[in-house]
Amino acid sequence: MSYLSILQGMSLEQIQSVIEIMQQSSEAYMFILDLSVDTYMVAEKATKRFPFQSTVIENCSETLKSVVYPSDYERLAAELEECRSGEKDIHALEYRWLDRMGRVVWISCKGTVVTGTEGHRLLIGAVTEMGAKAKADNITGLRREARFRLDMESTLRDQPESVRYLMRIGIDNFKEINEKEGVEAGDEVLRELAECIIKTVDESVDIYRLVADEFMIADTGKGVSKEPGAVYRQIQRSIAAMAESKEYSRFYTVSAGVLETDFSGRSVEELMRYTEFALNEAKRNGRNQMVSFDRETFDVYLERLDIRKLLRQDVSHDFRGFELYYQPIVSAEDYRLVGAEALLRWKNEKFGNVSPAVFIPVLEESGLIIPVGQYVLWEAAKTCKKWKEYIPGFHINVNLSYVQLYKSDMMHDVERCIREVGLDPESLVLELTESGYIETNDRIKELFKDLKSRNIDLALDDFGTGYSNMRYLKEIDAKTVKIDRSFVVQALKNEYDYNIISHIIDMVHSLGSVVCMEGIEEKEELSKMMATKPDMIQGYYFGKPTPAGQFEKEFLQTTDSP
Ligand code: C2E
Ligand code: MG
Ligand code: MG
Fold first, then answer.
1. pTM
2. Would the CB of 462 count as within 6 Å of ligand 1?
3. Which of 311, 369, 399 to mutate to test the pocket of ligand 1 (most atoms within 8 A of CB)?
4. pLDDT exceeds cutoff 60 at 562
C-alpha cells in the first residue's frame, strides 16, 4: 500500500496529525492546502518567519498575496488552479516569498494532490528555503551560516541563558592570499584553519564557516566551560605550529571578535552584528588579536554613524550648521596681530556643538571633508580679503586634511578660489593637519612645489605629536612649523622638553622657516616660552577662536585703519 493511498483514506484531522509529527524532524515548512475550500494549514514555524496570521488560513488566495513576491503570484495562482481543476496532481515550483521584514526569500515548493475522505482535493507538501540548502561547506566540511542561524534561533528560543560565548574568527590577510596565490591557495588556508580550530576546541562547542574567511565558534553550554581568550590563544599557537611544520611557506594570522554576555532577548541578527563589530574592532586595532564586544564602544560607533548621516544631510543643505571661527595669531616680537587660523565648527539639533576632534575624522573617512574643505577655503579667503583692509599684511591659515591632498585637485581648487575672491596668494597659509603619515609620493611633492611657486605657504601643524617631525618638515618644505599645545605643556612642566623645543626652534630657523607656538594660555607661560624664540604665538592668552563678527569687533575695529 502506498503512502498516498494511506493518506487518501484519512480525514483532514488525521492527515494534520501525521504532518505535525513529520514536521518535527524536518527543516522544511510542511503544509496542507485544501484546494476545494481554499484553506491553508502551515507549520507554526512558518508563521514566525513569514507574514501568516495563524497556522490555519481561510481564504488562502488572499493571504498568499501578502506572502508571495508580487511578480511571482500569477505563476503560482495558475499552477494552483491546475491542481484544483485536476489538470495536475504534482506541484513543484521555485519562486519567491517575502519574510516578515519584507525581504525576499527564494523557496522551493513541492507537493502532491490527495483526495481526502470528504472528497476535497488536498495539496500536501513542503516548502524549503533554497538559501538554507547551503548548510554545509564542501571546502572545510563545516556547517555554514544558514545552519548557524537555525541552531542559534532554537537555542535563543529555548535556553538563551546556557550560551557562554560566540567567537567570530577572521583571517587577517585572506584577500591578499587569494589575490597573490590564487583561490586554490585560499581554499587550502580555509581548510587548514578549520583543522586548527577543530583540533583546539572540544566537541561540546559548535563550529561553523560563515561568509568568505570567517568562522564562528558557539559555546552553548554543552560541555566544560573554557575561557574564550584561552581558546583564541590556542588557535593562534596551532596556526603557528602548522606554519612551522610547513617551513613557513605561507604565514597568516587571525583576529577574533567575542560576545560573552547579553544573549537573552536577542535575535540572531543582533548576535551576528555584535560579533562582526567586535571582529572589525580587532582588525582596526591592528589585527592578530581578540576583542570582546563592548556595548559602550558599539554605541560610540553607532553615534558616529549617526553623526555621519547628519553631516551628510547638512552638507547637502548648503553647509547648514557649519561655521568658521577665527583665532588670532600674533607676532612674538611685539604681539601685533598678523593673522588668524580658521577653525571649523559644526552644530546640529540632536548633538548640539560637536567638537572638531569628533566630526573632522568622520568628515575625513566619509570623504565629506572634500566639499567641506572647499567651503572652509572659500569662506576663509573671503574673510581674509575683507580683513586685509584693516591690516594689509594679514594672513589666514586654513587647515587641510590629507584626504583633500590625496583625493581632490587642491592646486586647482586653491588657484580658482584666490583668483575669484581676489586674494593675493601670500595671504593664504595651508596648515597640514595630520592623522597619519602622509606618503609623500610624486604627485604630492609636485603639489607642494606648485604651491610654493605660487607663493602659497605651507605650515606643518601639530608639531611634536604623532607623525609630525623634522624629516617631514624637510619633505613638505614648510614655511611655518606650528608647535602643538601638548608639546608646549610638556615643556612648561619639565626642562628636558623645554630644551628640546628650544633646539627645535633653532633648527627650524637655520632651515629658513619660522615657528608659531600654539596653546599659550597664561602670562607666565608666555614669558617662559618667549625665551625659546618663537616667531608667532597663537593661544587663548591672545584670544580664543570666535565667530567672524566678534573677531572683527575685538581685534580689528580697534586698529586705526581702514
Ligand atoms: P589645530 O589645527 O592644531 O588647531 C588648534 C586647536 O587648538 C584649536 O582647536 C584651538 O581652539 C586650540 N587652541 C588654540 N589655542 C589654545 C589654547 O591656548 N589652549 C587650548 N587648550 N587650546 C587651544 P579646535 O578648534 O578644537 O580644533 C581642533 C583641530 O581640528 C584642529 O587642530 C585641526 O586639526 C582640526 N580642524 C579644525 N578646523 C578644521 C578644518 O577646517 N579642516 C580640517 N581638516 N581640520 C580642522
Ligand atoms: Mg591648525
Ligand atoms: Mg595645531
1. 0.70
2. yes
3. 399
4. no
